[in-house]
Design goal:
Number of strands: 10
Strand order of the largest sheet: 1-2-3
GO molecular function: DNA binding
Family: Belongs to the 'phage' integrase family.
Radius of gyration: 26 Å
Strand content: 5-15%
CATH superfamily of the largest domain: Intergrase catalytic core
Pfam families: Arm-DNA-bind_5 (PF17293), Phage_int_SAM_5 (PF13102), Phage_integrase (PF00589)
Shape: globular
Keywords: DNA recombination, DNA-binding
Number of domains: 3
CATH class of the largest domain: Mainly Alpha
CATH architecture of the largest domain: Orthogonal Bundle
Protein name: Integrase
Distance between the termini: 88 Å
Length: about 400
Amino acid sequence: MSTNLKLRLFKGKTHADGTHPIQLQFYVNGKEKRKGIYFCHAKDWDEKTCRVKSKVPNSAYINNLLSEKYAEYERELLKVLNGESQQADFFEIKKDLTLDEAMNIELDRFVNEEKPMTRDRIRAYANELKLYLNSEGTYLKDIDYKWFEKYSAFLVTNITSGTSIVRKGNIASTAQKKIKDVKRIIEKHSASPLSKEVKSFRTKAKKPPKQKLTQAELISLETLDLKEGDLITIVRDIFLLQIYLRGARIGSLLMAYSNQFKDGRYTANNTTGKNNVDSKLIPKAQGIIDKYIGKYERLFPLYNFTPDPNLSEFENKRNATKHKESCTSVVNKYLKILAEKAGINKPLSSHIARHTFARMAIDKINNPMVTMELLGHASLAVHQQYLNDIRKEDVLDQAADDIFG
C-alpha cells in the first residue's frame, strides 16, 4: 500500500535566518498533513534527491536524520492506513513548549552540528533567561511585544547588589543581536507565527559612538620607542597591521600563517574571520611582516592552539575558540597600556583598528561602493549605517570644539 509520503522543502515559510522547513508530506483520509523535520536554505536543497547537497556542512548528519525520520514515519503511517493504529503519536500536534525547552532543543542541535561557538553563545542567553526572566515558566505562545520590551530593558540595564554591579548592561548592538537570536528560536519552535509587531521589534537603547584614532594619534602609536621582541611591541605591531590591512579582524591576524603574506599581498583565510578581505601590502605593512615572517608557526607568536586527539571535534573547536578569545584579551590588555604611553585618551581595543581604517577610507574616497568593498561589508545598507555611525562622532567632536574653542 502506498503511503504518498514525500520529503520536500517548504518555501511557503521562511525562518528569520533565511532557511525553510524540510517537511514530510503525507495524506490521511484524503487530507494533506505535514510534519517539520529540519531546515535549510533553498540553495542547499537538491530537488532531485530530496536531500541536502553534499557541500553543506554536516550534510551527512542532516541527510541521515532525514532518512531515519522518513523510515520511522513510513512505518507508523502504514499502521494507520492498515487500521492497526488509530493515530500515531507523531501525527499529533506537539505540546506548547516553554522558552527554556526551545533553547535546550537548539543547544542539542548545535552539539550535533559541531558548532561550539554558537552553542556557548546561546547557552549564555539561556542561562540569563532562566535566571532573570523565568524562561522555564514562560510558554512560547505567551511571548508578545511587551515581553520583548521587558527583555530589551533587562539587557541594557546594569544589575546591582548593594553598590556592586553583578551584571553589566549590554550596549545596544549586543542587545539587539541577543534579541534577534532569541526571536529566531521562538519563531522556529512556536506553534503560532510571530506578529508583525514582534518581528519588527528593536531595542531602543542609544548606540555608543564608534571610537577611532585620529591621524595624530596613529602617528604617536607608530613612533613609540619600544623594545623589539617584547609582548607590548608585538601587540602594537598586530594592531597597526590590522589598520594597514584594511581593518582586518583580530582573530584572522592572530591565526594567520606566514605563507598568507607573499608576493606583496595578504591572502585572507575566510573561514577564520567575518568580512575578512585580501589586501595589498603597503610598505608599512611589509615592514612589520618582515620582522616576523618565518620565525614562528604562525606570523605572530600568540595563537598556538593544537587540537587534542583524545577530544571530540566539537570539544576541540570550543577550546580553539576559547584560546583565540584569551589571545584577544591579551592584545586588548596591552593596547590599554600602549594608549597611555602614546598619550591617547581613548579605550584602545583591537576593534578600533577597523573603525580607524574606515575613517581614513571615507576621508579619501567618496564612493560608498568602493569603501563597502574595502571594508568587506555584505550590503550597501549595512555599510551606509556603519559610515553614519563613524561620521556621527566626528560631528559631535566638532560641536564640542566649537563650544569650547
